[in-house]
Amino acid sequence: MAEEEKIPSTDVLRDRVLEAIKMVYDPEIPVDVYELGLIYEINIYPVNNVYVLMTLTSPSCPSAEQIPGEIEQRIKEVEGVNDVTVELTFDPPYTQEMMSEAAKLELGFL
Fold this sequence. Notes:
23% of the residues are buried. It contains three helices and three strands; from the N terminus they run αββαβα. It is of the alpha+beta class. It has a three-stranded mixed β-sheet, covered by helices on one side.
């Protein structure tokens, strides 16, 4: 008998998506985009569609196309994910206060 394919719960899937996002780094900063505070929202919708609302350190960030595309690709690799939408916003504007304590420590701000 073949095993039934298990569909991960929303919480499990969200954890896996978060792990995937944490594998993406700003090429100019040795901290992942989540710890930098660039991720504003992660939503898992029915049929495992994932929506991410994010920002960049500045609107003129040289990695403006690379980072969202890499996030989308990493999330698509997560087992159980159906579709991915990554939306960029600059409202509210990014500030260093959005960084996690770990990111501030890594970058010497603490």
